[in-house]
Amino acid sequence: MPKSKHDKKVSLTKTAKKGLELKQNLIEELRKYVDTYKYLFIFSVANMRNSELKDIRNPWKHSRMFFGKNKVMMVALDRSPADEYKDNLHQVSKKLKGEVGLLFTNRTKEEANEWFTKYTEMDFARAGNRATFTVTLHLGPLEQFPHSMEPQLRQLGLPTALKRGVVTLPSDHEVGDVLTPEQPLLKLFGYEMAEFKVTIRYMWDAQSGRFQQMGEDLPESASESAEEESEGEDDG
Which residues contact 113 (CB under 8 A, 6 or more apart)? Predict the structure, then answer.
């Protein structure tokens, strides 16, 4: 009787070894870029979207950008003055918490700051986000929705009804406050409230070893869960 594919055994030792090798390769790559580029910037991301981050990589392909795997990046740069790869890199490691990334570049701080200050993209808010303004949906027919969607709209909290086959709102309805997974009404009505924004926070100068703050300081209590969620992204 042939063996089922589900019976195939996977060596955990090999899997762990592969993961260790990937981490070691990333550490070596990061240290190579420390030696290659003039500046290292720490940036934070608001309303993280993988697609938007990828769009940024293209105009910055002359540089190298890393996002995620904060703990591995901390190991590469070292966490204490006694162990650090180069002077003051432990200051960089201390700031790698939450949704932050590294940008290795030869562009000056003025160039980097100006570019990222101007770059923003709007997207639909996700569950857990707070609406930036209250949307009032006015009574009357909602002709943009087919009649088959009427039960779904009611499940989402919209007091709709079918009148002569047309989805209709019998009274004004407000949508706002903190959004829940069951409340994607703002997206259905086309309201984009989440601003994807990258902000340069700190800079490390390779020549002088100087570490300086450029924007508002990151909170010390950066979310560990946010850090873990960001660990899927790396250099592209």
Answer: 200, 214
